[in-house]
Design brief:
Bound molecules: oxa(dethia)-CoA
CATH architecture of the largest domain: 3-Layer(aba) Sandwich
CATH superfamily of the largest domain: Thiolase/Chalcone synthase
Radius of gyration: 18 Å
Largest sheet: 5 strands, mixed
Number of strands: 13
Number of domains: 2
Shape: globular
Distance between the termini: 25 Å
Low-confidence stretches: none
Strand order of the largest sheet: 1-7-6-4-5
Helix content: 25-40%
Oligomer: single chain
CATH class of the largest domain: Alpha Beta
Structural class: alpha/beta
Order of helices and strands: EEHHEHEHEHEHEHEEEHEHHHEE
């Protein structure tokens, strides 16, 4: 059987136009710009307008990724969409995006790994492409977390924002891909920690959507150790070393976590792509949004080795090394 490699063709991001600053939040809950900036690095976040849905954001990000790739929706035969804030309980938001893009072939489905969703979706698409079952995939991370926040809980509502990011992955032979492609992936979950970060509602329990609950300082402690271990696993699997990494594109949860992980891994600060100040934590959208920003501003260039990672509800965490 021919061996295939998944190669990144294009990345795009989209943020809703409405912006909520830390000062805006200080008018809603007992918090300050100083506290939020010092503890998280977040200065503002984008919030979806009334009626603006996860599929709306995801479809725009997908179009931007296709434009960046020089491709059209007709070129896509797989959509893997990471979201914890679907438009509806069903059908899969991926099928709504598929329809909005005018794609009538192939398959589209949602994947639920909360903040780690984009890493899990990349792994899933990579496996389908590597087996030769699909040709070109849109890997999307899109969220409207503003819809599941408790806007009276200062411990969580200041952290999250809405947005979407997408990446086109293409199946290529080893000869075509050269040194490019997905090099190593490590995924983990541990349901013992589900109570540290969860939504307190759902179809089968409360028949409501529910709101996000988090024991932030506990998640923080798990994040630094578990992400660092995962990165080492991905690097080992790829037969590479940490010093080979050109760009570290982490899940944008908290600047203190980003910096602590980079320090633990021995990654220089200038290699860390951080959008947390402008975007806040956009869950599954945060990695592709950050990747798109760093490609657009010319930091990430063709041939660079990019490390992505994330951790969130589950707990679920993982990392991937991709030469773009
Ligand atoms: O994307 C999924 C992964 N999620 C994460 O990675 C989030 C990880 N956790 C974090 O980023 C941090 O734990 C937080 C930013 C959520 C909190 O920072 P912290 O340094 O861990 O603070 P803490 O939770 O230990 O709270 C310290 C104090 C508490 O007051 P007392 O009990 O010391 O009097 C909180 O009530 O800060 C208080 N506090 C606030 N004060 C002002 C919590 N939220 C706020 C707030 N404004 N918004």
């Amino acid at each position: 059987m021919t061996e295939f490699v998944s190669v990144v063709r294009g990345v795009g991001g989209h943020l809703p136009s409405k912006v909520l600053t830390n000062d805006d939040l200080a008018k809603m809950v007992d918090t300050t710009d100083e506290w939020i900036t010092a503890r998280t690095g977040i200065r503002k976040r984008h919030i979806a307008a009334e009626g603006e849905t996860t599929s709306d954001l995801g479809a725009i990000a997908a179009k931007k990724a296709l434009d960046a790739a020089g491709l059209t929706p007709d070129d896509i035969d797989l959509i893997v969409m990471a979201t914890a804030t679907p438009d509806y309980t069903f059908p899969a938001t991926a099928t709504i995006v598929q329809h909005k893009l005018g794609i009538t072939r192939g398959a589209a489905f949602d994947l639920q790994a909360v903040c780690s969703g984009f890493v899990f979706a990349t792994a899933t698409a990579d496996n389908f492409l590597a087996r030769g079952q699909f040709e070109r995939a849109l890997v999307i991370g899109a969220e409207t977390f503003s819809r599941i926040l408790d806007w009276s809980d200062r411990g969580t509502c200041v952290l999250f924002g809405d947005g979407a990011g997408a990446m086109v992955l293409e199946r290529q032979t080893k000869e075509q891909a050269g040194d490019k492609g997905v090099k190593g992936i490590h995924l983990r979950t541990d349901g013992r920690y589900r109570d540290l970060l969860f939504v307190d509602g759902g179809p089968s329990t409360t028949q409501t959507v529910g709101q996000l609950r988090m024991v932030g300082n506990q998640v923080f402690k798990h994040a630094v150790g578990k992400i660092s271990e995962s990165v080492m696993e991905s690097v080992k699997q790829a037969g590479l070393q940490v010093k080979d990494i050109d760009w570290f594109v982490p899940h944008q949860a908290n600047q203190r976590i980003l910096s602590a992980v980079a320090e633990r891994l021995g990654l220089e600060e200038h290699k860390v792509v951080s959008t947390v100040a402008e975007h806040g934590n956009t869950s599954a959208a945060s990695v592709p949004l950050a990747m798109a920003a760093a490609i657009e501003d010319g930091r990430i260039k063709p041939g660079d080795l990019v490390l992505i990672e994330a951790i969130g509800g589950g707990l679920a965490w993982g990392s991937a090394l991709i030469r773009v």
